[in-house]
Amino acid sequence: MPEFALGMGSNLGNRKKNLVEGIRYLLTRSCMGMFRLSGVYETTPAEGVEGGDFLNCVFAGKFYGSVAELQKNCKEAEVLLGSRVRKDNSARTLDIDLLFFGDVKRNDEELTLPHPGIQRRRFVLKPLSDVWSGEIPGLKSTPEELLKNCSDKSGIRSICEMPSEGCFWEVTTET
């Protein structure tokens, strides 16, 4: 049962609700085990993505299926919440990136593991450090170590703290 981490973000609509609904969808799929959620952080869009500020988090846990099943479930959650299949630089109701899946290393047209953007994205490293203290599989560094050396110096603002294991954040109408 490999452990996984998903980087999640939303910059359209009720952003926190979009994150929660995406996670709820994933939890209804078979093969999902115990999970942890990071705190929620607000960041400006990076790498040319359109739209307003993002809310970002990391969803980590155990998965009893294959990497292909988890990736399929993530794409289904994105589409269900209104994200385009091809995102280009458009704003997103929900964006889910598979950061790592156990010790799986993969590099093809559909998926690269570990995710090639982890090391350069503060909006991924900060929430990942909330839920993952060990070395990131395939990178031989912890999120904290990578965060200290990250070239991305963009601002990141904590919106809500990390909930207890197996719990969600409170959702209000304004976020």
Describe the structure.
The chain is of the alpha+beta class and about 180 residues long. It has one domain (about 5-160): Alpha-Beta Plaits (2-Layer Sandwich), CATH 3.30.70.560. Helix content is about 25%, strand content about 25%. The chain has four helices and eight strands, in the order E-H-E-E-E-H-E-E-E-H-H-E. It has helices at about 15-30, 65-80, 120-130, 145-150; strands at about 5-10, 30-35, 40-45, 55-65, 95-100, 105, 110-115, 155-160. Strands 1, 2, 3, 4, 5 and 8 form a six-stranded antiparallel β-sheet that branches. The chain has a two-stranded antiparallel ribbon with strand order 6-7. Helix 1 packs across helix 2 (about 65-80). It is globular and about 35 Å long.
Classified by CATH, the class is Alpha Beta
Percent of sequence in beta strands: 25-35%
SSE order, one letter for each helix or strand: EHEEEHEEEHHE
Radius of gyration: 15 Å
How confident overall, as mean pLDDT? 89
Please summarize the sheet with the most strands.
Answer: 6 strands, antiparallel
Instruction: Characterize the overall form.
Output: globular
- Give the structural class: alpha+beta
The CATH topology turns out to be Alpha-Beta Plaits
Give the proportion of residues in helices.
25-40%
Instruction: Measure the end-to-end span.
Output: 34 Å
* Residue runs with pLDDT of under 50 for 5 or more positions: none
Report the CATH superfamily. 7,8-Dihydro-6-hydroxymethylpterin-pyrophosphokinase HPPK
Number of strands: 8
Number of domains: 1
CATH architecture: 2-Layer Sandwich
Q: What's the number of helices?
A: 4
